[in-house]
Design goal:
- There is one protein chain.
- By secondary structure, the chain is mostly helical.
- The protein has one domain (about 15-55).
- It is built from three helices and no strands.
- It is elongated, with a radius of gyration of 19 Å.
- About 0% of the residues are buried.
């Protein structure tokens, strides 16, 4: 996906919109799920470091 960004930015006149849509449909949902998992882990770590995890128990 990162390499495709360069094509979109620097060679946009040759972009195949069907290919762009296929990438959007295939990759955005897994990316969203991965980001949500990372954010959840970071939230848990932040609570642990700040001591909030003990207060929740």
């Amino acid at each position: 996906m990162a390499g495709f960004r360069d094509v979109l930015i620097h060679q946009y006149e040759g972009v195949n919109m069907a290919e762009v849509w296929q990438i959007v449909e295939k990759n955005l949902e897994p990316l969203r799920l991965a980001i949500e998992a990372m954010l959840s882990s970071l939230d848990a770590l932040e609570r642990e470091v700040s001591g909030d995890a003990e207060e929740c128990e």
